[in-house]
Design brief:
- By secondary structure, the protein is of the alpha+beta class.
- The chain has three helices and six strands; from the N terminus they run E-E-E-H-E-E-H-H-E.
Amino acid sequence: MIRHIVMWKFAAEAEGLTKAENLDLVASRLMSLYKSGKIKGLRRMEIGKDVSGTDMSMDMVLLTEFDSLDDLAAYKIFPDHAAISAYVKKVSLSRTVVDCEI
């Protein structure tokens, strides 16, 4: 099993939306993708938004679990995920990723 963890720092405003609006939009689109059941091998998804607001904090975290590295690779290029990823690149300032075996 592979755990894929992504954290983002979002821009205060981007694509005509506030940070809070973009956080909600991205979270909603990611969860919708998960709930659709279209992603083979995607077993779990959790999304969290930062509540501490410290200088070290990221704004959002995505925790996903896949059956294999191949399933994670397929998720990364899945068209619906690629569209979400392209949007996140426009509205975020930084991204951190960890993929680990569990």
